[in-house]
Specification:
- The chain is an alpha+beta fold and 173 residues long.
- Helix content is 33%, strand content 28%.
- It has five helices and seven strands.
- Strands 1-2-3-4-5-7-6 form a seven-stranded mixed sheet, with helices on both faces.
- Helix 3 packs across helix 5.
- It is globular.
Length: 173
Amino acid sequence: MACVVRPCTPKDLPDIMRLIKEIAVIYKIPLNGIRTNVEVLKEAGFGKQPRYECFVAEVPPQQKSKEGHTLIGYVLSVHTYSTWKGRNLYMDNLYVMPEFRGRHIGKMLLNTAVEAAWHKGCSQIRMHSSSEKPENIRFLEYSGGEDLTVKDGWNLFRFQETQLRGMAAQSKF
């Protein structure tokens, strides 16, 4: 499968919003509870002071989804700061449409975010994962993440400097 991972652009935001809604449905979050919309995403990501970084996974039109979509995954992250470790990256979402999973697209998105973080001086990547999604936890552990807590039904993962360096070195982005 030909898949390209590239930086998100403002024209991708309607698709990002579609994928955010897909995630909400998976986690049984009422759609009317989503406060984000395309305009908010545009200002937050592409305004005077960008608040997040986003990469998208896109397939050619001949490999589009059942619904006709070519943008089939994304990773959205923000920079945070640790008083002990300095600059960090927090991945809010790493998502690939279910019909495209198992094709290493999630790994491509993760590696792209890791490489970008490494080049910006980050020492760790952190994210959470629902305990109701053990396949997600296995993916993060397999990729080198550490399960820091199961408190409140969420797992917090950290990618240490050693993993970042190794993953960034292997990246093709």
